[in-house]
Specification:
By secondary structure, this protein is an alpha+beta fold. 47% of the residues lie in helices and 28% in strands. Part of the 50S ribosomal subunit.
Length: 171
């Protein structure tokens, strides 16, 4: 059974939040909360709150023992970007952005899952933006490699004049 907990518009940048998520992705949820308690980062406290929320969802709604849970997936997305200004030299305004993030945590009951799948699959942190771009890059790389193979196998005349001359000579 998969238990989810979501927190939106956390006022921590997604980059910092992903850094904390990678630090705890392979731990049990209780261990992750304990680990985040001692990390001195701005993203540690909001992330531990979301993990605690997921644990509470499992115990209260589904009557699952918190010790038998494991983190299946942590998704960190970008939320609103607030555009702000602060005073600069010569009366100018200097722009900066206040980024926010959305966090979704999926927990799984480790005792209910089969041992083959639980040992082979590890928790993952997904970023939908990079997964889309990586698929595009993979398709582009395969297309370029096909083009280079075609270029190596086919020989082309150096100019149109030589092509016309070669066709006229054959007649």
């Amino acid at each position: 059974m998969i238990i989810t907990a979501t927190q939106r518009q956390i006022s921590v940048t997604p980059r910092k939040m992903r850094m904390m998520a990678t630090a705890v992705k392979n731990l049990k949820p209780q261990e992750a909360v304990n680990q985040l308690k001692y990390l001195n980062y701005s993203a540690a406290k909001p992330l531990s709150k979301v993990i605690k929320q997921a644990i509470a969802n499992a115990t209260n709604n589904h009557k699952i023992n918190p010790d038998s849970l494991k983190i299946k997936e942590i998704v960190v997305n970008q939320g609103w970007t607030l555009k702000r200004w602060h005073a600069g030299a010569r009366g100018r305004g200097k722009p900066y952005t206040r980024r926010r993030s959305h966090v979704t945590i999926k927990l799984e009951n480790a005792s209910a899952s089969t041992p083959n799948t639980s040992s082979s699959k590890k928790a993952s942190i997904t970023n939908p933006e990079t997964s889309k771009t990586s698929k595009k890059l993979d398709s582009k790389l395969s297309d370029t490699s096909k083009k280079t193979l075609k270029k190596k196998t086919t020989t082309r005349p150096s100019s149109k004049k030589t092509l016309k001359q070669s066709t006229s000579n054959q007649k």
